[in-house]
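User: Could you write out the 3D structure of this protein bound to glutamine? I've included everything you need below.
Assistant: Certainly. Input first, then the structure.
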Amino acid sequence: MAKFIFITGGVSSSLGKGLACAALGALLQARGLKVRLRKLDPYLNVDPGTMNPYQHGEVFVTSDGAEADLDLGHYERFTNQDATKSDSVTSGKIYSAVIAKERRGDYLGATIQVIPHITDEIKAFILNDSDSSDVILCEVGGTVGDIEALPFLEAIRQLRNELDRDSSLLIHLTLVPYLAAAGELKTKPTQHSVQALQTLGLRPDILLCRSEHEIPDDAKRKLALFCNVAFENVVRANDAKSIYEIPLTYHQEGLDDAVAKAFDIKTAPNLKPWQELITKLHNPKKKVRIGIVGKYIQLKDAYKSLDQAITHAGIAEQTDIEKIWIDGEDKDLMSKIQQVDGLIIPGGFGERGIEGKIRTIHYARQNKKPLLGICLGMQLSVIEGVRTELGIKDASSTEFGPTNTPVVARMTEWMSGEQKERRGISDDMGGTMRLGSFPCVIDKDSLAYKLYGATQINERHRHRYEVNLGYREALESKGYVFSGISPDGLLPEIIEYKPHPFFIACQFHPELVSRPFNPHPLFTGLVRACLAA
Ligand code: GLN
């Protein structure tokens, strides 16, 4: 039977609960344990798929097609293993499932209530498919005290009672602020936050205290005393220069030792791979500047995986990468893109900023500047090619309004495994895109093949529109190559422009599968092309 670690947050949001969960997962993995990480989000959306990136940051996509919280991206990157649909849930999903069961008559005439029906559904989610893991880490989104989180915390309270005594832990991530005027660290917010937990019947076993300063032993003793935890289980979480240092810093502070003691885990962690990664990260030999021309650039969380994928490529190539985030509508766009060594056009939705991105693609193609286009970036690359090379000036995507030349159009049918997926124009917006991992066949005579070293790949998708293959022949006569195609030959996946050292665009999102210990070839290729330019 798996052991369970529940991670809650107190005092303030944005303390890095997702990263804490991911880093602890990595530390337990380093002790040879099989871990699984899960996220319970209290908001009422069924998933974050319909949310604006400014509300919720990036929408992460799992290989089995779930639109999930960006913390799942951290989990995957830190543990180097794929998350699934059953690792992410929201109140919206829980309530929908319960209401659907009620409509079906599954509850045999009972009155449906938060306790037990909602809490049972939450417990079933937590316990589902847990037998093959040694430890399941469950992060509860939000902050203790949020109304929406109450059913989740109640479910955890019940579960901790039902599980064997030594098989669950509760870690509370909290903030210990430094008050400059008083010249000391303050423990009171943490005390109050733990009190709030205790009124719900939950007692933390470990306090993970985010603090910019060293926490002296007397402050730790005070926290232990007032919050009912063992002194050695008050662990400082300090700020790290890179998120990939967190497993090592938590280890130094004793977090995984506290967990190992509680669960009677005897193996010592092997942290050598992490140490080597950090040494590489901090000792770059070269430097490049990569410009990312996007739409949601004010909020870095909107491009979390992309940001990380570039970092991974930098580590792999021992190159310090300065990322320049540029708004597609920036009035200095042209001068900004001239100053970088390479460009990325990331995924995106809607019309705003697209003409700036098309101008960027045009500039990169004409001036042989390395360019990687992703999803919307590939669609715009084809539009730019059709406009410039085929002279069709109004070439566009039906996503941006009516057009006589729909180079990119809404997809209505595609294969998912053996099944044909169909979509109508008036279908729901939520969960109806082409989502998850799909195969792609790569042409041997291509840059893509040089980068991947394979003719058959799988990559993750999240899009509603698709490049129209009708323009393929005309574009290929102008130097383009459609080097990656779906196995049925119907959906273009990768395009390249041959008379260019590195002009490649893909319909999928390579950034979602890039990992620190397994960087993605499209990003390492881009960095190498920038270095060679
Ligand atoms: N908006 C485009 C589509 O839906 C691209 C999506 C994306 O970049 N993820 O197809």
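The CA atoms of residues 80 and 474 lie 41 Å apart.
User: Perfect, thank you.
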